[in-house]
């Protein structure tokens, strides 16, 4: 392994680590990605693949602030367009050209009185759903179509990014990491790898590295269950306060729970039963045959926003993406690469300073 300033070891092979690896290669860095799990077992591997500033912002405490941040982060996918593999570029172009997010609510909840002023304040274009668009959704629900949210197949993107890393001289290593410093990574076996720079993009797994990177000590787990389903006709995203269907044509996902403080991957039968009930509550005709429950652990922070930047030890970190790893990964890559290059980061960088707590 080269140890010159032009090499980077990334701990973590989820969406954050892989976006960073591909973007780093485009900047001429030699990368090595170290991950202890198969991609399919990571939070990134099971995620629904929504890149959804509007519907995520809508559900936050301060919707306008949250939407603006998420929307700016989302734009990094486009700003870095030339670095992505061709099939990821094509998927991005396709999803950007489609309006496919619907937000629905029970008429009895009168949520249009809350939702529409919020969307207006956020500056998100939306339109009331037509009868045609409400087909398949519970008869006593109403809703809006929302512009600007995207949907990607996470698994396909991850596989493509991995192939790109390997095809451009990068290394993917399967191994647990025990400790890191600004220029070294110590594997659980005791082997020490050296590089010009080290970045931790290890999701909630990063919490275990807090003894060598103190800023990671604030991470908290949020377990999530979702259901992998057969495709439901390519409906895109249908979301309500109780869950979402993310329908990718070939397959679909219904999710997701937010189980704060839990970091295990056990499938909980009562949670699965509740998810199924919620799915049929929103879409009575949803096909739950062959529904396969999956779990993942998100990493969260005290203010619910990621840690992206340089820890006091000199280690770069990109963690704490909570529900929005697919929104933030390219943004995090761009920010870390600017810091590594000694360039001025963008105006949002201070919001994500890992040393802010
Ligand atoms: C049910 C569910 C649905 C979701 N849906 C969405 C969605 O639609 N849109 C969205 O934006 N986000 C979604 N999320 C959130 C999203 O999955 C996460 O924000 C994102 O996956 C975080 O990616 P990551 O690469 O930072 O971490 P992870 O995907 O958790 O990857 C961590 C990586 O680090 C490695 N690692 C950890 N510790 C070590 C160690 N000690 N040594 C070596 N390797 C290590 C792991 O093996 C893995 O490769 C969802 C999450 C869940 C649980």
SSE sequence, one letter per element: EHEHEHHHEHEEEHEEEEEEEEEEHEEEH
Largest sheet: 9 strands, mixed
Oligomer state equals single chain
Helical residue percent band: 25-40%
Overall average pLDDT: 95
SS elements, strand count: 20
- Bulk shape: globular
What separation lies between the terminal Cα atoms? 34 Å
CATH homology superfamily name of the domain at 1-99 and 149-218 and 302-357? FAD/NAD(P)-binding domain
CATH level 1 class label of the domain at 1-99 and 149-218 and 302-357? Alpha Beta
Contiguous uncertain segments of 5+ residues: none
Assess the beta-strand content as a share of residues: 25-35%
Radius of gyration: 20 Å
Task: Please describe what this structure looks like.
This protein has 357 residues and is an alpha+beta fold. The chain has a domain at 1-99 and 149-218 and 302-357: FAD/NAD(P)-binding domain (3-Layer(bba) Sandwich). Helix content is 29%, strand content 26%. The protein has helices spanning 15-26, 43-46, 53-58, 63-79, 86-96, 112-122, 154-167, 269-282, 325-340, and strands at residues 7-11, 30-35, 50-51, 101-106, 126-128, 141-146, 150-151, 171-174, 177-180, 184-187, 192-194, 197-200, 220-230, 236-240, 243-247, 251-255, 259-260, 292-300, 307-310, 316-319. Strands 4, 5, 6, 13, 14, 15, 16, 17 and 18 form a nine-stranded mixed sheet that branches. The two termini are 34 Å apart. The model has no long low-confidence stretch (mean pLDDT 95). Bound molecules: flavin-adenine dinucleotide. Flavin-adenine dinucleotide is lined by residues 11-17, 34-37, 42-44, 46-50, 176-177, 201-203, 205, 208, 224, 226, 255-256, 296, 298, 319, 321-327. Flavin-adenine dinucleotide binds next to helix 1, strand 2, helix 2, strand 13 and strand 18.
């Amino acid at each position: 392994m080269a140890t010159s300033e032009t090499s980077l070891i990334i701990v973590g092979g989820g969406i954050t680590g892989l976006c960073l690896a591909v973007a780093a290669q485009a900047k001429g860095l030699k990368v090595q990605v170290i991950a202890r799990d198969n991609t399919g077992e990571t939070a990134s591997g099971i995620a629904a693949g929504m890149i959804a500033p509007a519907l995520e912002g809508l559900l936050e405490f301060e919707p306008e602030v949250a939407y603006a941040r998420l929307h700016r982060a989302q734009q990094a996918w486009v700003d870095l367009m030339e670095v992505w593999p061709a099939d990821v570029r094509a998927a991005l172009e396709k999803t950007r050209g489609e309006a496919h997010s619907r937000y629905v609510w029970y008429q009895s909840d009168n949520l249009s009185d809350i939702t529409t002023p919020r969307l207006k304040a956020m500056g998100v274009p939306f339109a009331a759903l037509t009868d045609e668009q409400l087909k398949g959704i519970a008869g006593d629900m109403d809703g809006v179509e929302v512009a600007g949210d995207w949907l990607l197949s996470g698994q396909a993107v991850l596989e493509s990014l991995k192939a790109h890393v390997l095809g451009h001289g990068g290394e993917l290593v399967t191994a647990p990491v025990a400790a890191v410093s600004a220029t070294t990574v110590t594997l659980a076996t005791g082997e020490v790898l050296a590089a010009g720079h080290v970045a931790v993009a290890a999701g909630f797994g990063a919490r275990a590295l807090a003894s060598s990177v103190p800023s990671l000590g604030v991470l908290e787990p949020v377990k999530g269950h979702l259901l992998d389903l057969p495709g439901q006709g390519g409906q895109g995203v249908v979301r309500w306060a109780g869950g979402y269907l993310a329908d990718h044509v070939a397959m679909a996902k219904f999710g997701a729970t937010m189980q704060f403080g839990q970091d295990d991957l056990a499938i909980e039968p009562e949670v699965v039963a509740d998810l199924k009930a919620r799915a049929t509550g929103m879409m009575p005709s949803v096909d739950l045959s062959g529904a396969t429950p999956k779990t993942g652990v998100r990493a969260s922070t005290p203010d619910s926003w990621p840690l992206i930047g340089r820890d006091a030890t000199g280690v770069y970190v990109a963690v704490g993406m909570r529900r929005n790893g697919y929104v933030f990964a390219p943004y995090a890559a761009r920010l870390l690469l600017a810091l590594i290059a000694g360039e001025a980061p963008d105006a949002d960088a201070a919001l994500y300073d890992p040393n802010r707590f």
